Sugar ABC transporter ATP-binding protein
Amino acid sequence: MKDGTTAEVLLELRGVTKQFPNGTKALRGVDLAVRRGAVHGLVGANGAGKSTLIKCVSGVQPVSDGTISWDGEVRTWKDPGDAQGAGLATIHQHVPLVPTLSALENVFLWRRGPWRRTAEMRAEFERLVERLGYEIDPDVQVASLPIGTRQMIAILQSLALGAQLVIMDEPTASLSEAERRIVLDAVQRLAADGTTFVFISHFLDEILEITDHVTVLRDGRAILDEPTATLTEERLVQAIAGRELLAVERAGGPAPAGAEVVLDVQELNAPVGVRDVSFQVRAGEIVGLAGLLGSGRSEILDGIFGADTKATGTVRVAGRRLRRNPRAAVAAGCAYVPEDRVSQGLHPDQPLWKNISLPDLGRRSLRRLLPREDAERELARRAIADLGIVASGPDALPSELSGGNAQKVVFAKWLYADKVVWLLDEPTAGVDVGAKAEILQLVRRLAAEGRAVVIACSDFEELLSVATRVLVVRGGRVVDDLDARETTEEQLIMLAHGLGAGSREVVHV
């Protein structure tokens, strides 16, 4: 529809409201019209109502008021299967595929019968692959595939189900630039072939590039609803935040001369992803790890923290050599914010007060043995106030919070536990522009207080805005050590791809 033509409305929401039993209004009279064959962008800050809207549209939750029309008919879905049967599929950020099965078996997972790999299925798989424009081996095990290819299999699964409309929730949040390009090209190709998309992303450049129309949600309302051609990134940011957001300026210079070496990594190796990595981080430094997906940046953090028990080499914190396990790292003063906050960073079904006090529970217990709930609750209230966590109170569950607020809880776990080394893996992945700026300011605050920070981030512009030094990681090695103030995003992209001066061998610092 980029040619400016219009089409009939496939999905329409009129006055949709969603109020939960506790009185929270997540949606407040939302109107939305998605035209057949369009790529319709849906954006908004974390907590704006996007997730609730998706759940209502896809049959996970009923609406409290208003109507949802599908192909001209008002519908009330009984459950997600009802919506799916009508032709509406949802692909979530964390793709729910079965890792031990093949690509073919995952694409046709929903089909009943004794055989999982028939000749008919193979023929249909090949037709779908041709339509998608991305080659996938039908027999490859999904566990061996990168995240980008798994996204493509999820799209194939939706097509196999006969989806007329595919909702994609943050499909590129954890992808490298090359993988993002593959997914975006596939969406555009399928839209041109007649498939309709609702595309949700925090990457506004993606929204402006591939969508035909954009709806911005804020506080449960549709604040903006316009053709993409009329919009700029600045207007989108203002609509999302309700105010102008100032760009984050570059961080200050390197750590003061003579600053203590807080983290010393020497000859770190791991069976997968890390080869002879050595570097030091001084008090007050923010060292970025820049690399493409699969470069080894996350594996370096795992090796330092002891999460990879097979890693070898020497890691010292404040001069003290660490044993190879996370418990020893935490005891020595290391904090770790993992990329997957849901499964690794939080206990989503435990209240905030239990999550936040967990790493330092001994100090908030009577004689370090009997937990004191009053002290834990007070700490949670302090964290909510200090970090601006939008939650009903200490008893709220992380699973009830938006992505940005849940990530602040992960930071809060360590913030009051006197940790001197902070290891951050994609700390702003899947959060809105406002929460992203707040998290980056928090990272700067940690350094200003004398902590040593190592941050792995796939967004090089963001990394340069906060880091004082950048280590370029490629093939599990550190291949360059750069002053962030004197480095451009374009240079990092070239070095990460093995182009230019960064193609030389490992640099020990």
